[in-house]
Amino acid sequence: MEKEQWYYINSGKCSPSYNMALDECLLNWQSTGAMPATIRFYEWEVPTLSIGYFQRVEKEIDMEEVEKRGFGFVRRQTGGRSVLHDRELTYSVIVSENHPKMPKTVTEAYRVISQGLLEGFRALGLNAYFAVPKTEQEREDLKNPRSAVCFDAPSWYEIVVEGRKIAGSAQTRQRGVILQHGSIPLEIDLDTLYDLFLFPNKRLKERMKNMFSSKAVAINELTDQTFTIEQLIEAFRVGFEKGMEIELVPYELTGEQREEVERLAKEKYESEEWNYRK
Fold first, then answer.
1. Which DSSP symbol is given to 224?
2. Is residue 273 within 8 Å of residue 31, measured between CB atoms?
3. Which residues share a beta bridge with 94?
4. CA angle 264, 266, 270 (to 5 degrees)
5. Does 150 qualify as catalytic in the annotation?
6. I need a labelling partner for 110 at 20 to 30 A (CA). Which of 75, 98, 170, 179 fits?
């Protein structure tokens, strides 16, 4: 039986504003029927802190430190907590809410989409499995996270290896379209990551940092082999095809589409009104 064809876009390294603008444009194009379901892989021109739609910059982020290090900064249109995008592969999945493979609930849609991630990690030789919070306390922790840092704890159907979270994802539904994107880290610099956040005191910061290392892990910590971004791209391209039972067809944006993305990047994702909104 012929598999359904989805578009596949490998954007390479882009600016923070362009990365977020392209994800939003793909959602918009999907909503009007201008594009089929799409899977995109991308990287970041500079290490970038992205924050969730509902996060408050002045309460959680040390912007002086972000700027001092020359890092990028951008607010996502998805929820969730902050992610430092550095030495990682980022993915996005854009698909209609009415697609026959897509469950109606956010949690179950995570499960379907994350099957592609699961197969990608397995293609790298990692014994990955889904996180399913079992106790009442674990479920409560998801509603009330201890810190502003993503990877602090796994959510429903996020990917875990050896008991530690290895991919962080966030999802939004707008205009009848699901956008899920997430971070697949090769390495995590814990000291740099925690220097970007505000804490009441140093003792709490150190405690949170120690807790993080017991709950999250990057790919290259788990194997004797040092993987490259190129190897990740191939593993997860194959993983999404297998996990979601689709065929990925490479797609290049038209000049008109690139102009639309660049316009949105400048007008929205480079604006203080969006990035520092209350």
1. S
2. no
3. 38, 179
4. 115
5. yes
6. 75
Which 3 state secondary structure label does DSSP give 48? strand
Give me the sign of the Cα torsion angle 3, 167, 148, 46: negative
The full set of domains in the chain, from first to last, is 4-275 (3.30.930.10)
Point out the catalytic residue in the list 37, 61, 150, 219: 150
Angle at alpha carbon of residue 32, lines to 27 and 36, rounded to 5° = 65
- pLDDT 10s digit of each residue in the chain, 278 long? 789 999 999 999 999 999 999 999 999 999 999 999 999 999 999 999 999 999 999 999 999 999 999 999 999 999 988 999 999 999 999 999 999 999 988 888 988 999 999 999 999 999 999 877 554 544 444 444 444 444 444 455 678 888 888 988 899 999 999 999 999 999 999 999 999 999 999 999 999 888 888 888 999 999 888 999 999 999 999 999 999 999 999 999 999 999 999 999 999 999 999 999 86
| Cβ contacts of 156 within 8 Å, gap of 6 or more | 107, 110, 111, 131, 132, 133, 142
Q: What is the pTM of this model?
A: 0.90
